[in-house]
Amino acid sequence: MSKGKKKEGSKNNTNPKSKKIVKFLWVVFAAIIGITGLTFGLIATGIIGYMPPIEDLENPIDKYASQVYSSDNELLGTYSQSKENRIYSNYDQLSPYLVQALIATEDARFYGHSGIDFYAVSRAVVKRVIFQQESGGGGSTISQQLAKQLYSPPAESFLDRILQKPIEWVIAVQLERYYTKEEIINLYLNKFDFLNNAVGIQTASKVYFNKLPSELTIEEAATLIGMCKNPSVFNPKRRPEATRGRRNVVLEQMYKANYITKAQLDSLTQLPLTLDYVRVDHKDGLAPYFREYLRKVMTAKKPDKSNYASWQMEQYAVDSTTWENDPLYGWCNKNTKSDGKPYSLYTDGLKIYTTVDSRMQTYAEEAVREHFSKELQPLFNKEKKGRSYAPFSSSVSKQVDSLIYKAMKVTDRYRSLKKDGKSESEILAIFKKPVDMKVFSWGGEIDTTMTPWDSIRYHKSFLRTGFMAMDAHNGQVKAYVGGIDFKYFQYDMVNIGRRQVGSTVKPFLYSLCMQEGMTPCDQLLYEQRAYITESGKPWSPRGARTSMLGQMVSVKWGLQNSDNIVTAYMMSRTTPYALVRMLHTFGITGKIDPVLALSLGTPDVSVSEMAGAYTAFANNGIRVNPLYVTRIEDAYGNTIATFDSRMQEVFNELTAVKMLDMLRAVMDGGTGSRIRYKYGLKAPMGGKTGTTQNNSDGWFMGFTPSLVTATWVGGEDRSIHFDGTAQGQGASMALPIYGLFMQKIYADPRLGYSAEEQFAKSPSNLSPCAGSSIDETLMDANSIQNSMGNGGIDDMFDSY
Fold first, then answer.
1. Are 494 and 608 in contact (CB under 8 A)?
2. Is 229 exposed, middle or buried (0-12, 13-18, 19+ CB in 10 A)?
3. Mapping DSSP to helix (H, G, I), strand (E, B) and coil, where does residue 714 land?
4. Residue 13, pLDDT above cutoff 90
5. 115 with 25, same domain?
6. Closest CA to 659 of 791, 769, 507, 764
7. What is the CATH number of the domain that holds 204?
8. Rg of the Cα atoms in the chain
């Protein structure tokens, strides 16, 4: 009995202590639960941490690069903020292997949790924290990793990272509330930075494998998902072996998750790491000048007169007119999103569908390279070799240093040194000190040692070009080459640069005279005449054919041979003011001096304006403005803007018949005949050569029934040019680019251009020589060709 009591007493003695311990543990547990709940509640309400507002959670990625597409649906390039070259991709555009690899590697129970995988967290705590096993695995779900990518700033310490974790858990749960599992995967892959300017899965697929995400193979998908662990360590470009090993780990995880078979695993892990690397840089790829022009146009702001200097008033007037009349100019600032904010070209993920055809663009760039690298630049170098004033002309031989000094002052290096407070003498000393640098050459970029001063002169020795091809009927620009190399020569000679047009202006004068009743068959005595200018001085242009002096020639012969005596006569039949009005009708902008010499090509005009102007000759008198973009879509594929051609009648149908007859004669035996005998192009064509004084500018305008092109070639400075006319005229400098381009166009049946295509037949009652006293020209194309021999006409000097 006493024994029983003793035992009972013992029990009574231990129960109070046990109860206290258990109670204490329950209190601690409850406190932990309460504090945890309170903490998570405070985080969820935004009192603690950086819980994003609901509107941010509903649209967590607000930075998508805008994409520029060609008319044949090739991606030409993107516009993005630094390190945000992300292109939006839908879940259904992902390869299933990407999804499988991601889940198998990063979150095996992804479809079973609501943002937090407590089993994975517990495993990570036990293995990594308690047992210090580095291979213990992570506890973060895909949702948590997405939350980290979206909202966690870089942690400055381990403690900061520990404090970030609960915040990411709450955000992960919130993301699971707003998005389906598929949407979370899509967000994760769209957000991730794969380095090498490859942000998001679509850009990464393009950069590393030159594919769309939907086209990725199993091993390629495993490679990209393997990078998600650490894109710096597992980077296929810099560390291929480490990346291959990580890829194989991902493949093993896919096998364990039953996404691939053992046979697939064994064969895929044996494959080498194979890339099709495509460097992403706005200076690389097709049509860089076009893409840069498009960027400037779309982001232009409404012209403010106070932002223009006094000498820029002409440009202010042009920009103001363009702002009002061109819907593409300033589009991003003219149009707003649903939230009332203007569109951003860099973050809103726009899809810009352009008129440029990637194949024709390739042919244009190839034609420029072939002509310059194989023929034109070697000839220029040969002419200038050994001349102290090279690459300038002899007329400025005493001014070379001042010209280089002037060029030095507009370089980034000069501006930077000036900003640092360097004096002119200090800057000059720096520019004349040799440094390691890369320079341009037609054989490829060269690593060399050179003074910055000499590098300026070296790069000026390369001739430049501007080339544009556009549809004659709808204005769609098919090819756009603003220079010879965008990395080294970024000045756009299609739309930004303006140079004197020489004899390519003559068809505008002839159109005016034809409109006023003249015909191609009208004749005049071929003799040098003196005309009195507005200032009372005599103006007496010389002709190129002294053997013809005293004979009768036709108007058609004059244009065919680009003869200045005939042109001066035509100018005397009208007024400079009427010609200025006609030029504006042709789409030539800017201030044009109404002087007699205007008829020989004194105004500065852009390549794009010239191309647009010449569409009137191929389009029965209707001029079409260049059209660069057909439509714009938002990031989700909704069309938000469309663009149409803008046209204007320049002259009537009878004048069109007259001008087409004369401009075809230029190609069939006139100054453009090199197209026939050197490039073998027999298709119906019209065109016009142009050369300015001292051979500073060489032009060629060419058109078929469907395609109009404009080509300019010259030096960066007007004083950089051929000293000899044979190589310095438009027929030698610019025409070959057109010839090479059209050879390539007609050789590609996919493009739909045929050498058999004919110009539209004119009504039977319309004749080029209607109203003329004679029925045909004094000397037709064949007789001229026979009398001069091959190359005779186009080797003549046809400048003002």
1. yes
2. middle
3. strand
4. no
5. no
6. 507
7. 1.10.3810.10
8. 36
Count the neighbouring beta carbons within 10 Å of the beta carbon of residue 171: 27
Question: Does residue 607 sit in the same domain as residue 680?
Answer: yes
Residue type, 800: Y
Residue 326 lies in a domain: no
Domain span at residue 560 reads 464-788
CA 725 – CA 798 distance, rounded (Å): 10
Whether 450 and 478 map to the same domain: the answer is no
Q: Where are the alpha helices (DSSP H) in 326-399?
A: 331-334, 358-371, 377-384
Which range is least confidently modeled, 250-254, 342-346, 780-784? 780-784
Where among 460, 479, 496 does a domain terminate?
A: 460
Tell me the residue type at 771. Answer: G
Does residue 167 lie in a domain region?
yes
- Angle between the N-to-C axes of helices 653-667 and 506-515, in degrees from 0 to 180, rounded to the nearest 10: 140
**Helix (H, G, I), strand (E, B), or coil: what is residue 116?**
coil
What pLDDT, in 10s, does the model give residues 685-736?
A: 999 999 999 999 999 999 999 999 999 999 999 999 999 889 999 999 999 9
Same domain as 25, residue 92: no
Category of 262 on φ-ψ map: left (φ > 0), alpha (ψ -120 to 50) or beta: alpha
* CA gap 730, 499 in Å, rounded: 13
What does the pLDDT look like over 465-494, one tens digit per residue? Answer: 999 999 999 999 999 999 999 999 999 999
With H, G, I as helix, E, B as strand and everything else as coil, classify residue 590. Answer: coil
Q: List own/partner pairs for 77-81 with CB under 8 A and 24 or more apart.
A: 77/282, 77/285, 77/286, 77/287, 77/288, 77/291, 78/203, 78/280, 78/282, 79/282, 79/291, 79/295, 79/345, 79/346, 80/199, 80/346, 80/347, 81/346, 81/347
42 lies in the same domain as 174: no
Tell me whether residue 261 is in a domain.
Answer: yes
534 Cβ contact partners less than 8 Å away, ≥ 6 residues apart = 576, 594, 595, 596
Mean pLDDT of 768-781: 53
| 8 A C-beta contact, residue 741 and residue 469 | yes
From residue 370, how far is each of 78, 373, 443, 488 by CA, in Å? 28, 6, 11, 18
What is the number of domains present in the chain?
Answer: 4
Three-state DSSP state, 176: helix
pLDDT bracket for residue 776 (50, 70, 90): very low
Mean residue pLDDT across the chain: 87
CA distance 221 to 215: 9
Q: Say yes or no to pLDDT of 799 above 80.
A: no
Work out the average pLDDT over 284-302.
93
Within-domain flag for 130: yes
Q: Hey, what are 280's tokens?
A: 């992403």
Q: Domain boundary residue among 432, 460, 488?
A: 460
The 3-state secondary structure of 673-712 reads CHHHHCCCCCCCCEEEEEECHHHCEEEEEEECCCEEEEEE
- Do 608 and 699 belong to one domain? yes
Regarding whether 691 and 596 lie in a shared domain, the answer is yes
How many helices and strands (H and E) does the chain possess? 31, 20
Question: What are the pLDDT digits (tens) for 255-270?
Answer: 999 999 999 999 999 9
Task: Tell me, yes or no, whether 22 and 90 share the same domain.
Answer: no
Peptide bond into 153 cis (omega under 30): no
Q: What is the pLDDT of residues 630-674, one digit of tens each?
A: 999 998 899 999 999 999 999 999 999 999 999 999 999 999 999
610 pLDDT higher than 50: yes
Instruction: For residue 566, give the nearest of 547, 583, 552 by alpha carbon.
Output: 552
